[in-house]
Amino acid sequence: MDVILLEYIDKVGDKHEVVKVKNGYGRNYLIPKGLAIVANKSNMARLDGLKKQFAKKESAKIDTYKDYASKLAGKTLKIVAKAGESGRLFGSVHAQHLIDAIQEELGFEVEKRMIRMPDEVKELGSYEAEFKFHEEVVINVNFDVVRDKNDDTDERTDTGSAKRSKAAPAAEEPPVVEATVVDTPAAAADLIIEDVVHLTETAEKAADVEVAAAEETAEEAVEDVVAEATETVEAAEAAAEEVADEEVVEAEVPAEADSEDESDKDA
Looking at the predicted structure, is the pLDDT value of residue 91 above 80? Predict the structure, then answer.
């Protein structure tokens, strides 16, 4: 679609220039934002009048933009971000961060389209961004990306240590132990290795105790079974002896009776 630009749009065209843009870009962005109007016959016929009408508004805008530029001149914006020990950010810095910083520090709002950021801002350090308020008002603004002072060092270096610090009682002063020791990722790794070794040793000791207890329990069980079996055998032997004695007595009694019968016959 063809539109008449009401303002300079970077990489699109100059103010009052008739340009061809994609339908979605024109209808969903340029026209709703007041940056362009449809280049129909009516608007084209009014273009000269529009130029004069907008010239006054443009002059007022330029004055405002110059005021913004004067406030930003020599100013270094500060962007606070979380970062690792190496200085690499947990994320990246975008134009919106600069807009928020300007709003907070200087009290005015800049449109995102006016800011041209460096290629990548993913580390702590100093950078420069181009602010193109208008084709006649362009300024480079410095900004520093600094570490968030509220960022938890233990969280960046040793998650396990951080959790232990939060769980420990205040009287034990765990931060003195954790925060001063863990200065580098290597130190954090050493702590983790020590923890793993300690946990492994503890687990092995616990396993040895359980095995020893199990063996002792098994030995006691075997002894109990053997004792019960021995008692059973002894009882069986005693019963067998009693039965044998009774059989001997029964066998002897008839013999005595036969002797008595023979004595009677002789008499």
Answer: yes
Percent helix, percent strand, percent coil in the chain, to nearest 5: 60, 15, 25
Q: Which two tokens stand for residue 164?
A: 């232990």
Distance CA 34, CA 52 (A): 17
**On the CB side of 166, how many CA atoms lie within 13 Å of its CA?**
9
Tokens coding 103: 């709003």
231's tokens = 């008692």
Q: What is the CA radius of gyration of the chain?
A: 49
Are residues 188 and 161 in contact, defined by beta-carbon separation less than 8 angstroms?
yes
Specify the pLDDT at position 211.
Answer: 52
- pLDDT at residue 92 in the model: 86
Q: Give the Cα separation of 214 and 158 in Å (integer).
A: 39
Place of tokens 């330029």: 62
CA distance 233 to 121: 89
Taking residues 158-171, what's their average pLDDT?
43
Calpha distance 52→61 (Å, rounded): 15
| CB neighbour class for 178 (10 Å; exposed up to 12, middle 13-18, buried from 19) | buried
Domain 72-151 classification at class level: alpha beta
pLDDT at 55: 81
What is d(CA 56, CA 34) in angstroms, rounded to the nearest whole number?
A: 16
According to DSSP, the β-strands at 76-81 and 137-147 are parallel
Q: What is the pLDDT of residue 76?
A: 92
The answer to whether 12 and 21 have CB atoms below 8 angstroms apart is yes
What is the CATH topology of the domain spanning 2-45? Ribosomal Protein L9; domain 1 (3.40.5)
